Amino acid sequence: MEETWRLSKKQDTLWKRARMIHAVRDFFISRGYLEVETPNMIPVLIPESHIDAISCGDWFLHTSPELYMKRLLAAGYPRIFQICKCFREGERGSCHLPEFTMLEWYCQAIDYRLLMKECEELIISVAHNLGYGDVIPYQGQTLRLQRPWESISVREAFALYGPMPMDKALKEDCFDEVMVSYIEPHLGFEQPSFIYDYPVSKATLAKAKEEEPDLAERFELYIGGKEIANACSELTDQNEHYIRFEKVQEYRRSMNKSVYPISERFLQDVVTMPAAAGIALGVDRLAMIFTDSPIIDSVVTFTPEFL
Amino acid sequence: MYNASDLKKGLRIKIDNEPYIVTEFNFVKPGKGQALYRSKLRNMITGAQFERTFRSVDSFEPADLQEKKMQYLYKEEGKYCFMDNESYEQVFLTEDQIGEAKNFLIDNLEAEILFFEDKPLEVSLPNFVDLVVVQAEPWARGDSVSGKTKPVTLQTGYQIQVPPFVEEGEKIRVDTRSGEYLTRVKE
User: Fold this and answer.
1) What span, in angstroms and rounded, lies between the C-alpha atoms of A271 and B56?
2) Is the pLDDT of residue A259 over 90?
3) Smallest Cβ distance to A180: which of B53, B57, B165?
4) Which one of A112, A164, B94, B133 has the fewest CB atoms closer than 10 angstroms to its CB?
């Protein structure tokens, strides 16, 4: 009886989560996006300094659908989206689950600026679909959805909220700590907030800015202090891919982390990949916002601790 | 040795030769960045609190504490008395040292008392304690799966949210770490 009771408390939240996912699908389908499914069990990974995969036999469970969605993009699919489970080793916290739901979409011939617009349109459309007007309540605060949303560069955010400028934080190897302790607590509380132009070293597959090659065309969407989505203008230069992959592999080796095999097919396909922008959005976290839940546990049926 | 990924609420570690307890903990990871372990720590001797963020490569030694199994006897003038069942030695803990544990302390309960050198620091209760419900609204039947809760009062005076089917006089098991209801106990 107790287990039933515990699960039944989640009913309202799970209904809302399901309606939210429907609304997301409606949004993309009405815009001519093709919904795709790519394999979850894969032999190769896109190298990431700080994301560890879960092994599955000799292969891996994917940590995101990025690799195969980009191969579709390269094969001439201009607008694609996917909602799928992703798996990451060792990630468990109030906003993390080792198995979580990701929404990823790619659009040809746009850059990260235009993708910010589409991101706004998606969230507003979902909010209206769920019966909200121009505000949503979250944890005692009121989030305004009227556009334009706040948008601040990483460099500005460090200058405004951080204890030191961005370049100093990079040099002293405390970029992530400053981000978590000083900057994130300011992002997305009155309205959703975009933070953009990350250092190239923090953006494996984002295109560098032409006028400032140390920065990459990458942004993150924050709502209520939580990172909801990560996006970029996609890197399409094959040679640059090789260089950046090698840097990541080198870092992983130096940290004694597993070094995963790289996809040669992907690196070949990059040659035909068109200019595009892509984004990964945490569905569970978006559900936390729309269901006013403080922790990720509330918006999923089962957490790993109760299996 | 503990790694940062072993950190959790309640873990006791040694920093600069003094014992600290983790009072709050969260795993965070800024976009594409590294895993960070945000912790609030309390010095178990001075009570001083501070926040610290660790990386996954950080490691810690366990705090130098002795645990002794003792039995709770009584409360007198704001002090809680515990006795060692073998040596009959008695120690007293203050209201501050007892903290939240007072909600679950019943006579003769066996608990671990933590000592740093000879000083008793705090009590660590069993994870689960069974307590009698002394006051509850009656159950309107049919309410068991609606996910509702109701407040009841336990024998220690502690108020807790429970499912509607829990009735006065019943014994329930409480998780002393979260202070939350777990299940009913049939005797």
Assistant:
1) 37
2) yes
3) B53
4) B94
Flag if B28 and A4 touch (Cβ within 8 Å): no
Three-class SS of residue A1? coil
Determine, for residues A2 and B183 on separate chains, whether the beta-carbon distance falls below 8 Å: yes
Q: Given CB atoms, is B57 within the 8 Å cutoff of chain A?
A: yes
* Residue A196: closest C-alpha in chain B: B31
The residue in chain A having the minimum alpha-carbon distance to the alpha carbon of residue B148 is A9
Q: Are A139 and A132 in contact (CB under 8 A)?
A: no
Contact (CB, 8 A) for A167 and A215:
no
Task: Tell me phi and psi for residue A20, to 5 degrees.
Answer: -65, -45
Q: Do B53 and A177 touch (CB under 8 A)?
A: yes
Any A CB within 8 A of B31 CB: yes
What confidence tens digit (pLDDT) does each residue in B141-167 have? 666 566 678 999 999 999 999 998 899
Interface confidence, given as ipTM, is 0.88
Q: Which of A106, A129, A92 is nearest to A35 (CA)?
A: A106
The whole-angstrom distance between residue A56's C-alpha and the CA centroid of its chain comes to 23
Answering whether pTM is above 0.95, one says no
Q: Which of B29, B38, B149 should be substituted to probe chain A, the one whose Cβ sees the most A Cβ atoms within 10 Å?
A: B29
Q: Report the C-alpha gap between A52 and A241 in whole angstroms.
A: 20
Tokens 């040795």 belong to residue: B1
Residue B123's SS3 state is: strand
CB contact at 8 A, B186 and B167: no
Q: Is A257 on the interface with B (CB under 8 A)?
A: no
Question: Rounded distance, CA A173 to CA A164, Å?
Answer: 12
Least CB-CB distance to A202: which of B32, B145, B182? Answer: B32
